[in-house]
Amino acid sequence: QRHYAISKATPIAMSFELFVTPNTDVRKSPLIIMHGLFGSKQNWRSVGRAIARETNRRVYTVDLRNHGESPHADVHNSAGMTADLSAFLTDNSISKACLMGHSMGGRAVMHFALYNAPLVDRLIVVDISPVSMPKTIGEMNTIMRGMLEVSLPSDMSLSVGRQKAKEILLKSIGRDSVDFIMLNLRKHPRTGEFYWACNVKVLRHSLNGFLDYGRNIHNKGPFLGPTSFICGKKSPYMDPNDWPEVLHFFPNASMNWLPTGHLVHLEKPKEFIKITTEFLNS
To answer: Residue limits of the AB hydrolase-1 domain (predicted)?
Structure first.
């Protein structure tokens, strides 16, 4: 993996995929989709393609820093991800964008919109609150500790390696989480070395920083553009009691609840795509 020592808000060039159709209207602001922790642009491919088709907008799915095919950096926080998004807009000559983010990506797009309102047309936040954080930091720490314990010999085949890694992770982590995390296991084509696509050490080190989010946005905003929250009823990541405070930051926001857990877009893709396309077309 490429690894740069990066100071507080030095941007990295995010890896991305662009979806267009023969009917794409380049005069419309494009949609940029940012995934959650341990995710990647791959998780959003079918959603991105569908939204591009239904809205006639360009749709970019990106890998956040320390994830997927994007460079690794020593800093992982909202300021860094905002710098990355600013650089992405500049590099792709985008003057104004619609933003969608899930979980960690949702916090990144909210942070960006509160700091850079003129660059944001519409905002979609998927299953995360700007106000409170569920008590899952300990759980994340357990997951990352498990990931760091996975050590596989380079002469082992990918299929056997996947099986072994899964067995190690299942000792301390639930099956749903393990299946999602396993999408990150890679094997170097030349050396045969196994590695995680996401930068586990830096992500683990930055976990406590997630708790500082409120302090970083408390005197920012509001963002007055159209905003849509899409959240899972069975997920702990959006407390309904936060809503009055959410409206303080995003007074033009609406809330959509779906009968899902945290991975709203994967559990109810049809309903999710319908809500997002109607919002982007309204």
So the answer is: 30-269
